[in-house]
């Protein structure tokens, strides 16, 4: 190539690079340019005064309305800083090492870094993949990306359009500290389509849907299944006192739910009888559900709780005992049949089954596909994650087998998969102590004191 043409090509490349830089950094370049013009035109005291006024105004904004300041000023500035100093600086080196680039005729093609958004504990990086590239290629090297950009974990999410993905870089664990029991809400604030029982990893309240679904909770011993159950009961307490919700509790272990037996017997039903009482309670729930369905047929298509027809939550603390471990075969068959009826037909008429179990294997509970909402707490094996949440959930970041076994760190922490999205969400349920449960019983059964409630249980 002639020397003059080489110089011309390099000049064009330099001009294009300068234009791209100015476009990408139009805001800071404009601000610096404006301050420089003020300094040259009026002296450098003027831009310094402007900067002081801006800082004072930002401080006043932060004091007056911190949430809006964080949302519209701090986090966009932090995102811009991390885009330049963390991701764009090492983008090419990390992606080449991870094998996410392609080389054609000596030229290296890189996926495009589109934008960065910062949250309280994580960064979301929007990436335009190479033509023909799939999200699976990024999921397989998520550990490489995490180490390359200094994150503790990376999750791959669907992007805003085909060919794009979000990379969620987790900077710190927002759920490492136990959450105390949440305040009992007012009855008007309880929404059965999303009762607040804890917190999500992004800092938002964790709203567990009960109306129109069933919930399966799977976790090893000590993983915090009781935290999820009792936080749900606590959130429902105002509607229980109002007669709009009933909780029917089945307690094969006779430990977790028995502590609130006076509350369940007052505002629902309770059974821990392994000789048929628990199965009879399930069958009674199925019969009542069928009677309600017959009454609603041709009258209404949507359920609204009332005193005549309360919303019923059937809580089974150890589902596997009824479906697999019960020594009497007839009781196992009857229990499985009743649960199948409730989970397949009960959603539309105001019935919700919450089942908790330790063993995630299908032969222990072959009805798990009838539970649209599934929660995986700490599990013993990586294969169990997909058994509970569905195929590919662990590759999408649901590392339930890596949750800490230390109760203060990992109890109540899990990943939930909703029927409307395949992406697992990391959550933690609030811890409801024995004292909190006694207080709930005192509110629900005023004639029974806190000490007496514990002894009665």
Overview of the structural elements:
- The chain is an alpha/beta fold and 457 residues long.
- Helices cover 44% and strands 18% of the residues.
- Strand 5 (153-158) and strand 6 (164-170) form a beta hairpin.
- Helix 9 runs parallel beside helix 11 (329-345).
- It starts with a helix and ends with a helix.
Secondary structure: elements and pairs:
Elements: H1 3-24, H2 26-42, H3 45-64, H4 66-98, E1 102-104, E2 107-109, E3 112-118, E4 122-128, H5 135-139, H6 142-148, E5 153-158, E6 164-170, E7 195-200, E8 205-208, E9 215-218, H7 225-241, E10 245-250, H8 261-266, E11 268-271, H9 277-296, E12 311-316, H10 319-325, H11 329-345, E13 351-357, E14 373-376, H12 383-389, H13 407-410, E15 413-417, E16 425-429, H14 434-444, H15 450-456
Parallel strand pairs: 9-13, 9-14, 10-11, 10-12, 12-13
Antiparallel strand pairs: 1-2, 3-4, 4-6, 5-6, 7-8, 7-16, 14-15, 15-16
Précis, in short:
The chain has 457 residues and is α/β, with parallel strands linked by helices.
């Amino acid at each position: 190539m002639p020397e003059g043409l080489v110089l011309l090509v390099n000049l064009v490349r330099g001009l294009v690079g300068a234009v791209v830089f100015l476009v990408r950094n139009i805001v800071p370049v404009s601000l610096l340019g404006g301050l420089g013009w003020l300094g040259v035109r009026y002296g450098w005291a003027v831009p310094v005064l402007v900067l002081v006024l801006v800082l004072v105004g930002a401080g006043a904004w932060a004091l007056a309305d911190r949430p809006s300041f964080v949302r519209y000023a701090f986090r966009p500035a932090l995102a811009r800083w991390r885009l330049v100093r963390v991701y764009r600086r090492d983008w090419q080196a990390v992606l080449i090492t991870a094998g996410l680039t392609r080389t054609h005729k000596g030229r290296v093609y890189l996926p495009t870094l589109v934008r960065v958004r910062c949250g309280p504990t994580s960064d979301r990086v929007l990436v335009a993949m190479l033509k023909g590239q799939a999200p699976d290629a990024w999921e397989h090297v998520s550990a490489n990306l995490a180490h390359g950009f200094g994150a503790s974990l990376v999750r791959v999410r669907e992007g805003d359009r085909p060919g794009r993905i979000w990379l969620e870089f987790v900077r710190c664990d927002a759920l490492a500290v136990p959450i105390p029991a949440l305040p009992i809400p007012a009855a008007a604030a309880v929404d059965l389509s999303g009762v607040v029982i804890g917190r999500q990893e992004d800092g938002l309240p964790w709203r567990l849907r009960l109306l129109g679904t069933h919930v399966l909770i799977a976790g090893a011993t000590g993983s915090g299944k009781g935290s999820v159950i009792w936080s749900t009961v606590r959130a429902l307490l105002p509607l229980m006192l109002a007669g709009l919700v009933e909780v029917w509790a089945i307690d094969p272990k006779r430990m977790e739910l028995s502590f609130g037996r006076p509350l369940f017997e007052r505002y629902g039903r309770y059974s821990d009888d392994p000789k048929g009482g628990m199965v009879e309670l399930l069958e009674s729930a199925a019969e009542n559900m069928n009677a309600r369905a017959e009454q609603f047929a041709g009258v209404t298509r949507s359920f609204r709780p009332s005193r005549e027809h309360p919303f019923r939550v059937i809580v089974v603390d150890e589902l596997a005992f009824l479906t697999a471990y019960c020594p009497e075969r007839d009781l196992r068959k009857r229990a499985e049949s009743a649960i199948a009826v409730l989970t397949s037909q009960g959603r539309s008429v105001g019935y919700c089954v919450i089942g908790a179990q330790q063993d995630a294997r299908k032969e222990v509970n072959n009805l798990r596909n009838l539970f649209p909402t599934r929660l995986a707490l700490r599990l013993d094996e990586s294969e169990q994650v997909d058994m509970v949440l569905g195929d590919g959930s662990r590759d999408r970041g649901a590392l339930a087998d890596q949750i800490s076994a230390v109760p203060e760190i990992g109890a109540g922490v899990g990943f939930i998969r909703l029927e409307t999205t395949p992406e697992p969400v990391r959550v933690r349920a609030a811890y409801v102590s024995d004292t909190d449960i006694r207080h709930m019983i005192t509110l629900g059964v005023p004639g029974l004191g806190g000490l007496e409630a514990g002894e009665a249980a």
